Amino acid sequence: MHLWNLFVAAILGLVEGLTEFAPVSSTGHMIIVDDLILKSNHLYGTEAANVFKVVIQLGSIMAMVVVFWDRFLNLLGLKKNITREQMYGERLRLTHVITGLVPAAVLGFLFEDYIDAHLFSVNTVLVALVVGAILMIVADLTRPRRPKTETVDQITYRQAFVVGLFQCLALWPGFSRSGSTISGGVLLGMSHRAAADFTFIMAVPIMFGASFLSLVKHWGAVTPETIPFFITGFISAFIFALIAIKFFLALINKVKLVPFAIYRILLAIVLLLLIWNR
Question: What is the dihedral of CA 102, 187, 123, 126, to 10 degrees?
Fold first, then answer.
C-alpha cells in the first residue's frame, strides 16, 4: 500500500464528507475527482472504485447518525426521560420519516436499472446541477416571509409526503438530495433549518440501505490490499462530514439556498470544461 494511495483516499473522503449533505451535489464533485484522480491513477480497478465510493458514503452516514443520535433514539422509542408532552404532543415521529421515504423508495426500486444505464454521465449530471440550482433559487425567491413550520417537530404528514416527492428528483444524479428536499420544504412553508433537519434524518435509512446493497454486490473487491485504502477514505469522510453537517446546520437559516445555487452553476461550468478538454 503506497502512501500516495492513502493520501488519495483521504482526499476523496474529504470531498465526499464536505459535499454529501450540502445542496451542491456530491455526485458532481465525485465525477470530477473520479476523472482527475481515480481514473488517472487506475486505483484497483472499477469494482474497487465502486466499493470505495460506497465506503466513504457510509462514513458520511455515520457522521449524520452521530449528529442526530438523540433524535434517532427518540424516533425509535429508545430515548429515556421522554415527557408525556413529548410523547403525545408535537414532535417528529418515525411515521413522518417513513412517509417521506416512500415515494423515492418506490420510484428508485422501479427505475433503478434505467437510472444506472442512462443518468450516470457527466452530461446528465451537468444538466441536473443547473436545473437543481434553478429550483433552489425559485424556492428562496417565492418562500413565505415567515415560515409556518419553524422546527422539524412541527412537520405535518402532508409536508413529509410532499418533501418525499421532491426527494424523487434526487434519483437524477447531480440534482442533490438535500438540494431538492430542502427546496421542497421551503416551498411548503418550512424554515430552512427544519427542512434541512428532516432532509438529513430521512437520508440515513435510504442511504444506508442503498450502500449496504451496493457493498454486498461488489464485496469481491474487498481484499487485504484495498482494505487500508477503504478505511482511510471512511475515516476521512466521517470526520469531514461531521464538520460539514454541523457547519451547514448552523449556517442554513442565515444564508439560505441562493449561494449554494450559484456554486452549483459554477460547478456545472467546471464539468463542461472537463467535457470539452477530453
Answer: -130
